[in-house]
Amino acid sequence: MIFVASGSPPNLPIRRNTIILAATMAVNSAVLQLTAAVSSLTFVLVTGVRGLLGLGPAIFLTSSGLTALPAGRLMDRFGRTPVMTAGFALGACGCALTALATRTDSTLAVIAGFALVGASSGISLLIRTAAGDMYPPERRARGISYVLFGAVFGAILGPTVFGPLFAGKDVKADSLTVPWLAAGAIALVALVMVQFVRPDPKRIAELIGSRSDVLPTTAAPLRELVRRPGVPPAMLAALASFGVMVSVMNLSGYVVVEHHHHSQGSVFPIIGAHVFGMYALVLVIGAAIDRVGRTSALEVGLVVMALSTIGMLWVTSVFATAVLLLGLGLGWNISFVAATARLADSTSPAERGRLLGFNDLLGALFGASLALLGGYALDAIGVAALAIGATAIVAAPVLLVVRAQGERVQEAA
């Protein structure tokens, strides 16, 4: 159940805005599922370059990261809704360009299309900024979880829309045209929906107050924001979890089709399971994070992700792969919500978009690097390289997060 934030002025439509943002997440996640499922294959089929199969996701993720920071700054200046609107418009244009590329075998068009879809993804990920705006610190993780929960329905929508479009078809470039056009239409639906979010969540944050202490009168520079207590370990965990999650997710379609020799249609249940894991338990997870604390949740999320990625060494079936991708999504969910809540706790409404945008910039660029490197390693060495490398990266920050927590306990004593 969604409640109005305690201490808020009467008649603020927090519940309505939360539901609309959750529905927007549901629609948008269907577009992201297509990107995760076929971005590598689309790039290979259009360009004919198999050795750089990770380059397609890398373009997508790099564009997402480079867009996140300026988008966050624009959100802090002009509000959340106008920037989200622009993001969905970019996504629709990017899908249309990618569809054109699949018909014309244009490398330039597919690169431009991936760049625009990536930019849209970077902006849509900042929807959680709007979610954090509308709830006080003691309920912020739950508020963020309410909005993210909408993506659960996207896990159902994606396979429902795109699965039939691939049924009985050979994996060729022109068979991807209609799915990419459908994704563009879905992005336009999200654009329309976000227009009903009123007043702007940033205005709600200013009205209800978003921190337990006194808000600064001016926004602090980014170099100060990243040094605030609790921010470095949260960003480190977010960097590792997001980078590994998006790189493995975007390469999983290639693994399933090319290495495990399953049909292209079998990718969508796997990606659907992953998205389901990312968001299905988010309501429970959000409430749990508010109770147990942000740092403990970060540790648990990273460990769950590590167990899921190392399991890729031994599984080949569609069902087992889906289970591992579900676990990967669940671990990311825990660490992602905890890190977002911690970063939101450390900022005022005028600072929040900037810090979250910078965090997303680093995560996306790291994910792009991992996708590019992982794609090369996957093609040259095999699945073992992807599984072991991803596990090492996502497990490494756990000790550093624990150490940071211990230092804060000692300082408090």
What overall geometry do the principal axes of the alpha carbons give?
globular
Query: Class in CATH?
Result: Mainly Alpha
Please identify, by name, the CATH architecture. Up-down Bundle
Give a count of the beta strands, DSSP E runs of length 2 or more.
Answer: 0
Largest sheet geometry: none
Average predicted local confidence, pLDDT = 83
What radius of gyration results from the CA coordinates?
20 Å
What is the H/E order?
HHHHHHHHHHHHHHHHHH
Contiguous low-pLDDT stretches (5 residues minimum) are: 1-7, 210-215, 409-413
CATH topology: Growth Hormone, Chain: A
Query: DSSP strand (E) fraction?
Result: under 5%
Count of separate DSSP helical elements: 18
Count of all domains: 1
First CA to last CA: what distance? 38 Å
Helix amount, in percent? over 70%
Structural class: mainly alpha
CATH superfamily: MFS general substrate transporter like domains
Task: Summarize this structure briefly.
The longest helix has 34 residues, at 14-47.
SSE layout and pairing:
Layout: H1 14-47, H2 55-78, H3 80-104, H4 107-124, H5 127-133, H6 140-148, H7 150-166, H8 177-194, H9 201-208, H10 222-225, H11 231-259, H12 267-279, H13 282-292, H14 294-310, H15 318-345, H16 349-380, H17 383-395, H18 397-412
Helix pairs in contact: 1-3, 1-4, 1-6, 1-7, 1-8, 1-11, 1-12, 2-3, 2-4, 2-16, 3-4, 3-8, 5-6, 5-9, 6-13, 6-15, 7-12, 11-14, 11-15, 11-16, 11-17, 11-18, 12-15, 13-15, 14-15, 14-17, 14-18, 16-17
